[in-house]
Amino acid sequence: MLDKIFSKKFKGDGIIWMVFFLLCIISIVEVYSASSVLTYKSGNYWSPMIKHAGLLLVGVFCMVVVMNVKCKYFKIVTPFMLAFALFTLVWVLLAGHSTNGAQRWISLVGIQFQPSEIAKGALILAVAQILSAMQTERGADKRAFKYILWVCACIVPLIMLENLSTAVLVSAVIVMMMFIGRVPLTQIGKLLGLAMLGLAFLLATIMIVGNDTEEKDPKMAMTEAAAEAEIEKPSGLDKLFHRADTWKSRIDKFLNSKEVAPNEFDLDKDAQVAHANIAIASSNIVGKGPGNSVERDFLSQAFSDFIYAIIIEEMGIIGAVVVCLLYIILLFRTATIANRCENIFPALLIMGLALLLVTQAMFNMLVAVGLVPVTGQPLPLISKGGTSTIINCVYMGAILSVSYSAKKKDEPETDTSGGNARLAVSRA
Description:
two-stranded antiparallel sheet
């Protein structure tokens, strides 16, 4: 019923619209609640929420524009997006703005953004196009695997130098897309084997090269990083491994399973993890209610990387489950839409975008509850952000575009006579 009402008022799938609106409402409420530090800095209690709501409005505008572009035209922008992503990723490495010791931002025409956010979408587009163009009755042509690796080899290493977690995230999504796109399992297996070896080598390099220094408060880290930059600019291997200290510190903290008594816990050394744990533990299952968080005043990036901990503190287990379910509904609804598509490209495109959003959300939630090391990944469509908020809205616009403009199968049953008429969502 609600699906039909939304479908009449808005183009595209009604359930996707409902999930989007609910995530935006949660975002505005929780960013407003979690932005006490920003409120103190600006001297205006409403300023952080107004700015975030403004960004969401810009994102909704961009989403509506993309939603009204027919999905067949997305192929045209793929080479331009890849070229732009490659150019900006090189630019950010050479002359990017540093935040917390990582050069992730550049300014173009007065707009500051993270090139890695553009690169993620460009890779999803490219992989979807390669897989759709090289489908046969028996699955993807073996050459598709080689082409995908070449595209990824140009983009992923550039992302990894400044943002390892984003590189791992997008790589995992591409592997899932290859599985869905029926790339031979032997090729995927070999890739995963090499990836495990590469990951082991990377971790060994980080543990050897990096120094396990205590992660400082972001404001202090930014000040000290700027002071060090004035003294000496990193070059060569120093430039290549300048994030190794941070990575090693996070890995060591995560692997250190020694139990520490609450009165002996060093809140200065492990401030983010400690205050996130306190926020979750003090929720008392039912939560303290919207706007009643205490740990937002002590938790760095409470409005971004650790907003899920604030959601649990205020809304309890029910709020945490609801947020998680919204992302799961988004993924399964997108899979349903993809299964109805007659052509492979739009189906693979929206599955890649949905997997990107949901996998990032899972990363963020697992970090907040202490199940994986701190990664710095925001919660899509909920965390306060600039580039990420707008681009995530664009991804939602692409999903909605496919939901109403992509050519659909005449029959709901799977056509087993042609490889282009179906996706192998499972290998059963």
